[in-house]
Amino acid sequence: MANIKLALTxxxxxxxQMNYGxxxxxxxxxxxxxxxxxxxxxxxxxxxxxxxxxxxxxxYEVANLCAKYGLEIASYSGQxxxxxxxxxxxxxxxxxxxxxxxxxxxxxxIGAKAQRQQNNIYPSVFEKLAPWAExxxxxxxxxxxxxxxxxxxxxxxxxxxxxxxxxxxxGWCPDFGMFGPNFMLGxxxxxxSPEEAAxxxxxxxxxxxxxxxxxxxxxxxxxxxxSKGMSPEEIEAGLDQFVLTDFQREALHCLLFIPDLxxxxxxxxxxxxxxxxxxxTVHCHGKFTRLNEIGDDxxxxxxxxxxxxxxxxxxxxxxxxxxxxxEGPTVPVLxxxxxxxxxxxxxxx
Length: 349
Fold this sequence. Notes:
Blueprint: E1 3-9, H1 14-20, H2 24-34, E2 38-42, H3 43-46, H4 56-68, E3 72-77, H5 93-110, E4 114-117, H6 123-136, E5 139-144, H7 153-165, E6 170-174, H8 194-207, H9 218-225, H10 232-238, H11 246-257, H12 264-267, H13 269-277, E7 284-288, H14 302-311, E8 315-322, H15 331-345
Parallel strand pairs: 1-2, 1-8, 2-3, 4-5, 5-6, 7-8
Helix pairs in contact: 5-6, 6-7, 8-11, 10-11
């Protein structure tokens, strides 16, 4: 039988911390008021410049605050930053493993049973992390975050690492944003030079096979959602009304004009989520960027994602993660979405 609990990632209150000086304790008070039973910490946010090496005293201080408010620590979120050393272009496997082990030790010290790890850790390092996760009793999940899909090459490399390790202590942390707005319009390509086609396709294969926003401004997402019936050329011309980075423009160009980008990884995403990701899920992120009248994100089928977890007898947390924009306070937005989750999960009281 599934045992799904709700947590709040403190990341959801970044605006309050940055603009209004909220402390970690202020955020924990809100989490308690919202009725969740756990919290998730993004370590780089909570411990600032001391990350990735927060002291035991700093970790104990946060753990004690959570105990004060009766909150479990659902996850300690690490950062697999390959640029941690300024003297290197990229981390060696040895250095990356050392940082990853340190994150596991910090998760253990703070009292977390799960740890989110970013998907830019090397799959070979993730496999080597398994015995350390077992030693400290911390389950580590690679975040399945857009633009990832379960069958893309990087995901498949992680799946092979998980299978080889054969440990329940390494797996996945699906972020429900993976089910968000689909830019894959299936448009027919225009006539590109071989050089341009090769360049754009290489970029698309590496970074832009996306089922969601890929960091696009909300107004651009809405523009794409309302562009059915327009030609790719018309859609691209309309992008001039938005302020976009060069990367965003090229990404959107890829999606409009490179053939077959809407293929294999999107067509089976729900089936792949259930059969590939969920059996190895150790933690979840309940991402949302907007709300409808019932408190759900209309671009993400939250109910379906949760029902699949329930069928799998998932035992763990879903961390509510707000990543949208609002003119007013964030807390009422969180409250409405958490109440939606409570209804879906049948949580009363």
